[in-house]
Amino acid sequence: METLTPRRHGLDNTTRPRLNRSKKVRVVAKIRGFTDLEAGPANWATVRKPQGDESDAVTVSFGDDQSSSRKESYKLDYCYEQNEGNEMIFAREVKPLIEGVFDGLNATVIAYGARGSGKTRVIQGSDKEPGLAVLAVAEILYRVEEIGRSISISVYEISQDHVYDLLDPKRPAVPVKSISEFEKLYLAGYISCKPMQKIANECTHRSHKGLIVHLSSPSETVPMCKMNFVDLAGYEDARRKSSEGLNLIESTKVNKSIYALLNVVYALNANENHVPYRESKLTRLLQDSLGGKSRILMLTCLNPSFCQDSAYMMSLASRSCQGVYRTVSETAKKTKSSTRPMVLSSPKMQLTGSVSTSRKPQMQFSIKKANGVATVIKQRKLFDEASHLTKSEKKSEKASFSSDIASAIGSSVQQEDSSPLRAINPQETIVLDKSSVSVVPVDTDSASDSSPLGAINPQETVVLDKEQAEENHGEVTPAINNSLRTLSEESQNIDKENFNSLINKDESPLISTQLQKISENLKSLMSSTPICIEFPPNNDTLSKVQALTDIEEPKTPIQSIGVSDRCELGDMNSPWEKLNMCGSEVKKSYVQNYLRLLNTGSKEQLKSLKGIGEKRASSILKLREESPEPFKELDDLKAIKLSAKQITKMMKMGVGDIFN
Length: 660
Ligand SMILES: Nc1ncnc2c1ncn2[C@@H]1O[C@H](COP(=O)(O)OP(=O)(O)OP(=O)(O)O)[C@@H](O)[C@H]1O
Known about the structure:
This is Kinesin motor domain-containing protein. By secondary structure, the chain is of the alpha/beta class. The protein has 20 helices and 19 strands.
């Protein structure tokens, strides 16, 4: 890369921002240029820019008017197309942030998007085109020289929740005097093989990379200012890969930190009282450059060749503009799964593969142990990997947070109801598998945890993989207790007593029996997916979960979907009620696992199901090509020409088999 001079790159002080940049967060998109292997033009997205008033939002629409019955449109502050390069983004978006940095306001530029969507090319640049970070440092250096201040930089990487200093771990920041010096340090840090990679002897892992430019303070009374550039690891829907072990954990962590960041941006944009910085290492690290009077530029990178993950990222980007713009959806008459646009799909919990049939909590409690690391996370979650809702759940979620979720999952469902009612429903999934033991949430959607109102419906889901379920045959409770003990010992944040008592001894024989039956029945259905059983909640569990998660007792208990639709918490005292409760959970679990199989099973597995022959199996596979998860609820089976009556019959037969 040639040495930069501000003038050569149009960075002289006469280049002033044309737009009013008083907004705290700007969310823009960038459609990357084509690589040599790709051919243009991209026809999956239409960018509509406002005529005249540049402060109006830009609309990006997905789907083809002619062929698709449905079209999704998202509003953002701006969308840069292929022909609009880094220098233009710099002049319009980054330069105003630099102005702010010299006025004492921290700034953060974050590039995020699907894998290969051009994030690095935008932030770091290439031989032909300098990236935003390089252009910004050139500009800052030019200006500090004039006013006698100085800069230093830090370059770091976040991999698997560990932060690595890529320059000099002994020094918090390394002074930089010229752009060539900067490029040498920055690019060297960028391409170096990091500690994690060295250990694994390979350089292919995904990680977030960040640059902090520290601007010295002009006097003791004025604090030092920072400008951050973050190149997030690419989002990838892990369901499409048979991710296992480290890859799956890595993927899950990457995605989670993207959601965590978006949650923070949303909270900041919406001026919420609580901003969930503690959700991830990255947000904690950036906290002082995101909060307060800092300015943020969210740059959603889009792949010009259609990519589902890009579209999904776009829906999230638009979501983080909530409060400023709303997602626009144009839904045509047909709403069958077969016609769903790609962006409808929301990735589900990947780590455990567990299926939750109950309502989505707003605050989650998570205890995880993977690779020897145990952490406890309490999160509010607007953006979530498990943001899937059944139809009936959607109906019951007429509070405003329903529309939040719908937008977050890219759904066209638009709720105008802005009721302030929110619910809190902490859930836990206890996962036992050979490689790791973890207690993780049944990852679900959430809304603001600042609402004073809410329902608490704690449920525990025991997930065993098939083999283990077979091996255990009713040994669930001791196994869980062992896992919990390990977890309790490893985490200082967990009260061992409380945890062990989460398992209600009275229920274990029943659960064990159910587990055994389901295990046997689902054997034919499941190849690798786990089996899921849910414990009914009770008052004891409730208080324990509350104690552990620090969740305030709701002032007004509100019934939530699923278990508590039918009975008050604490009402389930009689064995008959408990049995009923388990029965309903078993049914739900069966349906969810059945749908999961339809969404993931091989053709042969599909054909082994009652009512599904060659033709239907082929049409299921075709639907899956169009949308990664075409079957979200039983109703969706109509897309493969099954009537409601046939579906009910199939389910009855299936559930009946449990008792054969
Ligand atoms: N504007 C562009 N014009 C042409 N090719 C581009 C452009 N931007 C990116 N590319 C190419 O696209 C590919 C992916 O780019 P890049 O590495 O920047 O993506 P990324 O989103 O950072 O990827 P990852 O998710 O793996 O970190 C590279 O081959 C790059 O050269």
